[in-house]
Write a structure and sequence with these properties.
Glutathione S-transferase family protein, four-stranded mixed β-sheet, alpha+beta, transferase activity, Glutaredoxin, Glutathione S-transferase Yfyf (Class Pi), Chain A, domain 2, Glutathione-S-Trfase_C_sf, globular, 202 residues, Glutathione_S-Trfase_N, 2 domains
Length: 202
């Protein structure tokens, strides 16, 4: 399968940093369009009126939302093994790891940051912040990766996100979370993405 021409609208101080790490893991070529949040480029707004990053364009197809982007990219390079295939017993847990991040964990962290009441458990997309945090700690305590021994694109999403979430104090860096982040930070893709970001913004 030929790789599509990929363009990523990116700001190093945003969620798109994780996408850059995933691109390094997958060794996928990509054109980077830097986004200044104070003056969002017309090219970004033309494909994503919300003006959010990451926004990905692949052969003209627009992909937004972190979970969709991670799943899309990982499946472009199946030989890298970062996306369990259909029929693999880890496929369901992998998709759950991605969806849980986007539909439960990040909304919970945003509510926590804004000191916003999440409403009744029945109306909230995640139930309670405490329950969400407990799931994360329990999952990472089983380590070394989110699905156990196999490193996947879900770990790039979680590793990159937990790095900034713990940095801002939204989630306590408990021993299991600290150990997970240390393992993640040692991957060559993390250093490579950071080096490229430094060169882009120099």
């Amino acid at each position: 399968m030929a790789c599509p021409k990929i363009t990523l609208f990116h700001n190093p101080q945003s969620r798109s940093a994780g996408v850059c790490i995933l691109l390094e893991e997958l060794a996928l070529p990509c054109e980077i369009q830097l986004v200044d949040f104070k003056d969002k480029p017309a090219a970004l707004l033309a494909v994503n009126p919300l003006g959010k990053v990451p926004t990905l364009v692949a052969d003209g197809a627009v992909i937004t939302e972190q979970v969709a982007i991670f799943q899309f990219l990982a499946e472009l390079a199946p030989e890298k093994g970062l996306s369990p295939a259909v029929g693999d017993p880890l496929r369901g847990p992998y998709l759950r790891a991605l969806a849980f991040y986007g539909s439960s964990f990040e909304p919970a962290m945003i509510d926590k940051a804004l000191k916003r009441d999440s409403g009744s458990a029945g109306m909230s997309p995640y139930g309670s912040i405490e329950a969400v945090e407990a799931i994360v700690r329990a999952r990472l305590a089983q380590g070394p990766w989110w699905l156990g021994e196999q490193f996947t694109a879900a770990d790039v999403l979680w590793g990159a996100s937990l790095s900034w979430i713990t940095q801002f104090g939204l989630l306590e860096k408990t021993p299991e979370i600290a150990a997970y982040l240390e393992r993640f930070s040692e991957r060559p893709s993390v250093a490579a993405a950071k080096a490229k970001d430094a060169a882009l913004t120099a």
